[in-house]
């Protein structure tokens, strides 16, 4: 005799199971129902990551015309920081350890940037002498960027067998942070321009990675599609 699956009215206690009855066996067998979860990395993680990179890079290139990064603080804190922390926790729940570490790390980076730029936190005031921010504050920012560049380099090593856009995103961000950190110590405008340009490249790579996961054949037209460019070697 073959197995026959009988769909029965489930009780509140058995909402997550489908009851199957083997006609040869008097005892029913319970099989778990398959659940599917969406990918938070494509919608929230990479898009917010690319948006913060893009805003940060554009303000770096336009530093002469924009002196107060208030808009970037709001975007980095509420869109970049909060959403990436949520994505990191979500990815950890799904079992994606690497994605969880990446998004949680960048979420904390955005929060730290917001705290440094908010006047009420008093961090800049500790380096102020006669209402003028001293050189030590800029040196501390340079060390801060250098440390985050090193952390991003470690994340880059963990992404070498993912996709080409993700590798390019991490590599561009490492180079951007290195240029910006060097600009703080050597005061070379060319390094700031290079850091801003590389940040835009990193944001474009993040957008590409997000859209390659987000634009699928059952949500959009078939010709609107980006290949994943998976690295396989």
How does this model look, in words?
There is one protein chain. The chain has 233 residues and is mainly alpha-helical. The chain is built from six helices and five strands. The protein has helices at 40-61, 70-94, 97-117, 135-158, 164-186, 189-214, and strands spanning 4-5, 17-21, 29-32, 128-129, 132-133. Strands 1-2-3 form a three-stranded antiparallel sheet, with no helix packed on it. Helix 1 packs antiparallel against helix 2 (70-94) and helix 1 packs antiparallel against helix 6 (189-214). The termini are far apart. 29% of the residues are buried.
Q: Report, as a whole number of angstroms, the end-to-end distance.
A: 48 Å
Q: How are the strands of the largest sheet arranged?
A: 1-2-3
Unreliable residue stretches: 1-18
The major beta sheet can be summarized as:
3 strands, antiparallel
Number of helices: 6
Radius of gyration over alpha carbons? 24 Å
Task: Please count the beta strands (DSSP E, at least 2 residues each).
Answer: 5
Structure class: mainly alpha
Average of the residue pLDDT scores: 80
- How do the SSEs run, as a string of H and E? EEEHHHEEHHH
Percent helix: 55-70%
- Determine the strand fraction and express it as a percent band: 5-15%
Shape: globular
């Amino acid at each position: 005799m073959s197995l026959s699956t009988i769909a029965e009215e489930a009780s509140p206690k058995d909402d997550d199971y489908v009851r199957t009855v083997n006609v040869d066996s008097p005892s029913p067998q319970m099989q778990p129902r398959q659940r599917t979860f969406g990918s938070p990395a494509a919608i929230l993680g990479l898009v917010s990551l690319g948006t913060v990179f893009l805003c940060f890079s554009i303000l770096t290139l336009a530093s002469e015309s924009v002196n107060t990064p208030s808009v970037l603080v709001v975007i980095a804190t509420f869109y970049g920081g909060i959403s990436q922390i949520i994505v990191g926790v979500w990815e950890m729940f799904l079992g994606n350890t690497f994605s969880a570490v990446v998004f949680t790390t960048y979420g904390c980076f955005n929060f730290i940037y917001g705290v440094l730029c908010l006047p009420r936190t008093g961090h800049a005031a500790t380096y102020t002498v006669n209402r003028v921010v001293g050189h030590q504050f800029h040196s501390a920012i340079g060390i801060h960027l250098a440390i985050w560049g090193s952390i991003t380099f470690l994340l880059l090593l963990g992404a070498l067998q993912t996709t080409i856009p993700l590798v390019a995103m991490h590599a561009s961000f490492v180079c951007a942070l290195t240029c910006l950190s060097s600009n703080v110590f050597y005061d070379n405008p060319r390094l700031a321009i290079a850091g801003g340009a590389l940040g835009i490249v990193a944001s474009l790579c993040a957008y590409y990675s997000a859209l390659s996961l987000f634009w699928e054949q059952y949500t959009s037209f078939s010709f609107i599609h980006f290949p994943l460019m998976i690295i396989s070697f």
